[in-house]
Design a protein that fits this description.
mainly alpha, 7 strands, single chain, two-stranded parallel ribbon, globular
């Protein structure tokens, strides 16, 4: 297990400084920016799309490094929080082993942990200073607590379950869905002890109350700033209710698992799921209850990111490890069993490991946005005005921060710089919007004194060829003066269509660097 932990951590740390000092992973600015704000005395995150526990955890993690002088700028702040996520992702591997060892067998736990160590989506998201991997660890831990306390008596196991529930919910609201697993555990306990339904509901009420108290204590400004909380929760429902392509959340979760843990592991996970439905041990009921409720409720949303599948992956792979362990045990001869185990390890580990290595190698290459920024810094005179797309460009100036559009309400310029997370320039910035891309005339840009226009499309995988009326109009006056492509040609790759992260999930052939297609045009008089 020590070796497995080292492999898991190595895959998650490799290339973890990608893009820095610019920020190319959406949502990191929210998590790290709030943590830096807390370190500078801004304890109210002024944000409630997510609860606040991880902001305080990240701030506590950064504090000693800041005292030691290791957190002195944007890049170091983001790097250390990414390292925290990589550690939490690797600890999840150990937790899956412990869960499987106690619930099924040593071999089941080891195979499940080995699968998670190399599972692509979990490896990828452990590179980011965001909430999905901490949430995954908390959900897995909450289910483990529910299983370990299923035969316990007294108030302490209820407190442990409630704290696990509150921590998961305080990391991200959907963490509260672990309550379904706790309900399954208490139902099993009640059936074994011939308890009445009233008694079972009473225990669940205690767990829920402790969970709510834990949520309030770890995310206090959800209560102290109710208007912001109402706004944040309203946005979540608006986001989930908004249809995207594809608009069916269950399809998105299925695709996330297909590309996120690779087909062999998904096949074994499906077999493990079917085997759990057949055996229905206490651990099976607990895991199945969470998987079912999570898939049904999250999949009902119209806008589902692939990363929403992260909490499913450890539990699905735990069931896969259990099923594989049972198959290996069918071999009575020790030599045959050893060969079967070796074959299983190759099938389980090889495809996702290759996937991981291709990803880790790619993200270490210089991003197209960095190349574009360096070109602009060298060629655009001081004081000139350039139109730059926000998500597809790394640049900002003081005016963009002062506008508050991307600084999330921060008033201190130093904190705002962490929230905005773009590199400052000597030239002035005017943000290029989606509506601008629809324009067929360049006159409005000339009237504003814009001299350079940077074209970079928000949707990943687009822009290999001119995809907008604005760029067609620019081409009429001449070709781009600089162009940066992440690929050789126009390969067919798989992206999360609603996640502005310009690295494919699959289809790495002909990819030479991360980033969007970028072309820079100079306006003529």
């Amino acid at each position: 297990m020590a070796g497995l932990f080292a492999i898991a951590l190595g895959l998650r740390l490799w290339g973890i400084n990608f893009g820095l000092p610019a920020l190319y992973r959406p949502d990191e600015d929210v998590a790290v920016g709030r943590a830096m704000g807390i370190l500078h005395g801004v304890f109210d995150p002024h944000f409630a799309d997510w609860p606040h526990l991880y902001f305080y955890v990240a701030a506590a993690w950064l504090a000693p490094f800041r005292v030691l002088g290791l957190v002195s700028d944007q890049a170091s702040g983001y790097l250390w929080v990414r390292i925290l996520d990589a550690l939490l992702g690797s600890l999840t591997v150990v937790l899956v082993f412990e869960f499987g060892r106690r619930a099924y067998s040593w071999l089941a736990g080891f195979l499940g942990a080995a699968a998670l160590a190399v599972a692509f989506l979990h490896v990828r998201d452990s590179h980011f200073g965001t909430l999905d991997i901490p949430l995954t660890l908390a959900c897995t831990g909450a289910l483990y607590i529910a299983y370990r306390t299923i035969t316990s008596h007294g108030i302490r196991p209820l407190l442990a379950n409630g704290i696990g529930l509150g921590i998961a919910a305080s990391l991200k609201y959907n963490g509260a869905l672990v309550f379904a697993a706790m309900a399954a555990a208490q139902w099993l306990r009640g059936r074994a002890q011939h308890s009445s339904l009233t008694h079972v509901f009473g225990r669940l009420a205690v767990i829920a109350l402790v969970g709510i108290a834990t949520l309030v204590l770890t995310s206090p400004f959800l209560v102290l700033d109710p208007s912001m909380t109402q706004h944040g929760i309203g946005y979540i429902f608006q986001h989930l209710g908004k249809s995207t392509a594809p608009s069916i959340g269950w399809v998105q979760l299925s695709l996330a698992l297909w590309y996120g843990i690779d087909p062999p592991l998904l096949l074994f996970g499906t077999i493990g799921l079917a085997y759990a439905l057949w055996r229905r041990t206490p651990a099976d009921w607990i895991v199945l209850a969470f998987l079912l409720v999570y898939i049904v409720l999250i999949g009902a949303g119209g806008s589902v990111f692939f990363r929403y599948a992260d909490p499913l992956i450890p539990l699905l792979l735990l069931l896969a490890g259990r099923a594989l362990a049972e198959l290996i045990k069918l071999a009575t001869d020790r030599r045959v069993r050893a060969l079967a185990l070796a074959a299983v390890m190759v099938v389980v580990a090889a495809p996702p490991l290759i996937h991981d290595l291709r990803y880790d190698t790619l993200i270490q290459q210089t991003d197209t946005r960095t190349l574009a920024f360096e070109w602009l810094a060298e060629h655009v005179p001081t004081g000139s005005l350039a139109a730059v797309p926000y998500m597809a460009g790394p640049a900002h100036d003081q005016a963009m921060i002062d506008s508050g559009e991307h600084s999330h309400g921060a008033t201190d310029p130093y904190v705002a710089a962490f929230l905005d997370s773009r590199l400052e320039t000597q030239y002035r910035i005017r943000e290029l919007t989606r509506d601008d891309l629809k324009l067929t005339s360049l006159d409005s840009f000339r009237q504003q004194g814009i001299q350079y226009i940077v074209i970079g499309y928000e949707t990943p995988g687009t822009g290999c060829r001119p995809d907008s009326p604005l760029e067609s109009a620019l081409l009429v006056q001449g070709p781009p003066i600089a162009a940066y492509s992440p690929t050789i040609g126009c390969p067919s790759s798989v992206f999360d269509p609603i996640d502005t992260y310009y690295v494919p999930l699959a289809g790495y052939a002909d990819w030479v660097r991360p980033g969007p297609q970028i072309r820079i045009y100079r306006l003529t008089d």
